[in-house]
Design brief:
The protein has helices at residues 2-40, 46-72, 95-100, 109-130, 137-160, 164-168, 176-194, 215-234, 243-275, 280-295, 303-326, 335-349, 359-388, 394-399, 401-406. With 419 residues, the chain is mainly α. The chain has a single domain (2-76, 93-406), classed as Ammonium transporter fold, CATH 1.10.3430.10. Helix 4 runs parallel beside helix 7, helix 7 runs parallel beside helix 13 (359-388) and helix 8 (215-234) runs parallel beside helix 10 (280-295).
Length: 419
């Protein structure tokens, strides 16, 4: 009996440690988003985008601790749609309870919170890049409070908290819908109200490219995100302490990497065929598109199928970015295309390999997440617009939001305000 207890304790410690390390990998994705976005905006807007990324992470951690986690994982839900309201984190597992469970309780509650909270910050980071260069900093942060404390957790409860989408059979392993489609949809609602950057579109519908200021930084951000995604997807297996789970985690890692590689290759080729050049920004987004696509189901595909899923995502993201520009939806970093359009593809691609999947359930999940997040975000953005405004003045946009919002520039030796 004592030997069994020791094995349970060891398993609990190992799975908790794996959960925490996976969460730390996902936290490092915050650096990836910050670098990617800082590289893809103009130099005069760099400090502000970095400030947003630092602040949104802190807000997400605080709001999820205060109420978001309990919304998403209620101790006792009211029903499958509304989780009820409770605040602050509860106690962790007592040693006696862990042993009594016979191994069914296999990681710490606090480890679960830590792993989940970094996912919330990821969803909010998606919004940051899409509204870059023309949104007021404090309006963005006000939205972050609502998004991370209420909007994200409620739709997350419907799937991961055993709500009605989970009961319908909707599958989303690590969050192509719950995290990525959610963040992209919130961004879309904000961009529609915000409008495009000045000079982005001509009077006759022509698109004027606005290149980013630092492509080495954007590339570094992409690689940081690629690395962090192993924690994002791998940690979502939740366990590693037996042979079957260890093999599953290994497969998730391999498929995650394969999909990213497929996305890079297809986006590079697609951009070359369309533009006659190897477009680096499209290639970077191709890698991220592959990662988003495989996130909904990284366990059941073969590595070859995972590569194909990523490759299709890489093609989709190029055409999605072009199409959004044609309808004058200005997204400086391509976040809506990468996380939204490709997030939908990832959820549909689950049906290619998971025998338990249902196309009807997947479509229901897509429609529910998009509908709820879009409407609730649009209302929130509109209220913020009425109360404090969401867009900087034309003069401030021309000068750069670094100066107007933060009072400093990221590259003072090389840039002048208004240039």
């Amino acid at each position: 009996m004592e030997q069994v207890d020791k094995l349970i304790e060891l398993s609990y410690a190992l799975d908790t440690f794996y959960f925490l390390i996976s969460g730390a990998f996902v936290m490092w994705m915050a650096a990836g988003f910050a670098m990617l976005e800082a590289g893809l905006v103009r130099a005069k807007n760099t400090t502000e985008i970095l400030t947003k990324n630092v602040a949104l992470f802190a807000i997400a951690c605080t709001m999820y601790m205060l109420c978001g986690y309990n919304f998403m994982y209620p101790a006792e839900a009211v029903n499958s749609v509304w989780p009820g309201m409770s605040f602050l984190l509860g106690d962790d597992h007592a040693a006696a309870d862990v042993l009594k469970s016979g191994g069914e309780t296999y990681y710490s509650n606090m480890a679960d919170f830590f792993f989940q909270v970094v996912f919330v910050a990821t969803a909010m980071s998606i919004v940051s890049g899409a509204v870059a260069e023309r949104m007021k900093l404090w309006a963005f942060l006000a939205f972050a409070v609502v998004m991370t404390g209420f909007i994200y957790p409620i739709q997350g409860y419907w799937k991961w908290g055993a709500g009605f989408l989970d009961q319908l059979g909707f599958l989303d392993f690590a969050g192509s819908g719950v995290v990525h489609l959610c963040g992209a949809t919130a961004a879309l609602a904000g961009v529609i109200l915000l409008g495009a950057r000045k000079g982005k579109y001509g009077p006759n519908g022509e698109v004027h490219p606005i290149p980013g200021c630092n492509m080495p930084l954007a590339t570094l951000g992409m690689f940081i995100l690629w690395l962090g995604w192993f924690g994002f997807n791998g940690g979502s297996e939740l366990k590693i302490s037996d042979i079957g789970e260890a093999n599953a985690v290994a497969m998730v890692f391999v498929n995650t990497n394969a999909a990213a590689a497929g996305g890079v290759i297809s986006a590079l080729l697609t951009a070359h065929l369309l533009f006659g050049k190897a477009d680096l920004s499209m290639t970077l987004n191709g890698a991220l598109a592959g990662l988003v696509a495989i996130t909904a189901e990284p366990l059941t595909p073969t590595p070859l199928l995972a590569t194909i899923i990523g490759a299709i995502a890489g093609i989709l993201v190029v055409f999605a970015i072009i199409s959004l520009d044609k309808v004058k939806i200005d997204d400086p970093v391509g976040a809506i295309s990468v996380h939204g359009v490709v997030g939908i593809w990832g959820l549909l691609a689950v049906c290619l390999s998971n025998d338990e999947s249902s196309l009807i359930a997947q479509l229901t999940g897509i429609g529910t997440i998009f509908g709820f997040v879009f409407v609730s975000s649009l209302i929130t953005w509109y209220i913020i617009k009425l109360v404090m405004g969401i867009r900087v003045t034309e003069e401030e946009e021309y000068q750069g939001v670094d100066y107007s919002e933060c009072g400093m520039e990221a590259y003072p030796e090389f840039t002048n305000s208004g240039k």
